[in-house]
Amino acid sequence: EVALIGAIIVIATGLRLWSIGYDLPYVFHPDEPAVVSVAMRIFKSGDMNPHFFHYPSLVFYLHALAYALYYGFGRLTGTMSSPLDLVDLSSIAMGATIAPDPTIMLIGRLISLAFGIGSVLLVYLIGRRLSDRPAVGAVAASLLAVSPTHIYHSSVITPDVLVTFFALWACYAAVLIFREGKTRHYVIAGIAIGLTTASKYNGGLVGLVLPVAHFLRTGPSGWKDARLYLTVPLIAITFLLATPYALLDYRAFSEALIFDASHYAAGHAGMEGDTLRWYANFLWTTTTLLSIMALAEIVRGLIQRSRATILLASFPIAYFIFISRFAVRNGRTILPILPFIFLLAAIPLVDLGGAAQ
């Protein structure tokens, strides 16, 4: 079992490393420069206010910390003497940027890669623990390891693979609540949900898995359990620790949220219209029969009242409905539910494999 998941991790790492420097020193992804620029400004100025709230701040702080470590190494080796030695990115044309020091970009992409690999491991743990069958975890982890969509987003600097990782961590904590219900699992779930929200605001929907897991375990009497309510301030505190200027610069924070909400509702040129159909087509072209199998497993789980399947399906169903209501649509927005599709599809795949033996 250890050798199997080790092999899956090695494959996942190799596929993501293969293209990690594909365009350097040029950068053609439209959002990578924004993350890098804000993080570089935080590191160089020491001002922890990102002055940018279209994303929560966790991604900026992680990258600023990585740049600080890179600078520290430069000081030790004598290649740097001032934070200004970290050269900023430079725009050379609309949609094209150049990185005078490509290592800056590689550092950021390696952070994405690490969270991408962590997501593969979490998928394995969720599948194994929820179904009590290591094969379910292994199949789902293998599907995520070779997913072109996840490979791509694990090789660029955006918050999307970050929010996917923490959503999976929150789900794993929910699985532990469902299976064991120990207090520490509620604490872990609250922290994970807070970090998910601090990675990308729409990731906060993963908070649904906590009450679902709780009541699936306890039944209606679960409303008397104080642990369920204590997770709410824990989620808020974790979010504010990772995005403190949501309070300290509330005006800028609220203005960014209002702008983003109206932007997603109104549309974005080239990424708008017929959202539900677009996402359905995207899932079909990127996962083919796996999405159909996941949907069939959800239907089967509802008919048979499978608590495990209901728990696993709660977040992707709610998230898919939520994002389908907006005018703007793109592949990275749907990324957080791809691992859940693979987990749901893995159950019938393992069943079919067992039946064929």
What does this protein look like?
The chain is mostly helical. The chain contains 16 helices and three strands. A three-stranded antiparallel sheet has the order 1-3-2, with no helix packed on it. The longest helix has 30 residues, at 102-131. The two termini are 20 Å apart.
Furnish the topology, listing elements before pairings.
Elements: H1 2-18, E1 26-27, H2 32-45, H3 58-77, E2 90-93, E3 96-98, H4 102-131, H5 134-145, H6 148-153, H7 160-179, H8 183-199, H9 209-218, H10 226-242, H11 245-248, H12 250-266, H13 275-287, H14 289-304, H15 307-324, H16 338-356
Antiparallel strand pairs: 1-3, 2-3
Helix pairs in contact: 1-4, 1-5, 2-3, 3-4, 4-5, 4-7, 4-16, 5-16, 7-8, 7-9, 8-10, 9-15, 14-15, 14-16, 15-16
Helix amount? over 70%
Low-confidence stretches: none
Q: What is the overall pLDDT average?
A: 93
- Lateral strand order in the biggest sheet: 1-3-2
**Beta-strand segment tally:** 3
* Number of H- or I-type helical stretches: 16
Q: Mind describing the biggest β-sheet?
A: 3 strands, antiparallel
Percent range for β-strand residues = under 5%
